[in-house]
Amino acid sequence: MDTHLHHEEKHLKSSDFLTDIVIGMSDGLTVPFALAAGLSGAVSSNSIIVIAGIAEIAAGSIAMGLGGYLAGKTESDHYQTELKREYDEVEKVPEKEKDEVKEFFANIGLSEEMQVKATEEIAKDKKQWVDFMMKYELGLDKPDPKRATKSALNIGLSYAVGGLVPLSPYFFASTPVDGLKLSAILTLVCLFIFGFFKSRITGVNPWTGALRVTLIGALAASAAFGVAKLFEG
């Protein structure tokens, strides 16, 4: 009989991927929804709303994807710059770098003897030494070299998928107002579901998070529709 206690730790994986989906989907559901609502209060043709919506989704996907790419590229460039600086420092001022390693071990409660032994062990391998400094001195983890491209695709595609939700009813409705009614129901339901699961993933109360996301989307669409009607009048 196996008497060992097994402790299973549950950790969130692929957090970068989930972050990208959240960024793209939240904007994709909200912005086209607000645009379609605004146009519903100003025009009498569904085709205009559909064309404008598709154009916005295309432009938004590209813009959001580019933003994700630049963010990922900046993170990678920053890491490489700091990596080069750390290699230079362990070459030129090794004793100072060793003192910083010892300070880290002192802060976690190791004895003086253990601080010296651990520091000397780490300093035997330059790559190991630099990796240690990057992680524990600077708080930087090595980024995925393909992160920028993945982020661009994840954010761009999730924006497009999200954007098609509020726009889809206008393909079938007879008037913009009818389309808006269907779009509002469909989008608010999707926003609630999206907000619920996003909040569960991030550790926030799912019901509170779902209501918050839904309310933001509803307010954005209401504001756009109201402004359109105001100018139309």
Notes on the protein architecture:
The chain has 233 residues and is mainly α. The chain has one domain. It is 80% helix and 0% strand. The chain contains eight helices and no strands. It has helices spanning 15-40, 46-92, 94-107, 112-123, 126-137, 147-167, 176-202, 206-232. Helix 1 (15-40) packs antiparallel against helix 7. The longest helix is centred in the N-terminal third of the chain and has 47 residues, at 46-92.
Nearest-integer average pLDDT: 86
Please state the overall shape, judged from the principal axes of the Cα atoms. elongated
Helicity level: over 70%
Rg over CA atoms: 26 Å
**Number of helices in the DSSP assignment:** 8
What attributes does this structure have?
80% helix, 233 residues, mainly alpha, 8 helices, single chain
List strands and helices in order, with pairings.
Layout: H1 15-40, H2 46-92, H3 94-107, H4 112-123, H5 126-137, H6 147-167, H7 176-202, H8 206-232
In summary, what is this structure?
About 80% of the residues lie in helices and about 0% in strands. With about 230 residues, it is mostly helical.
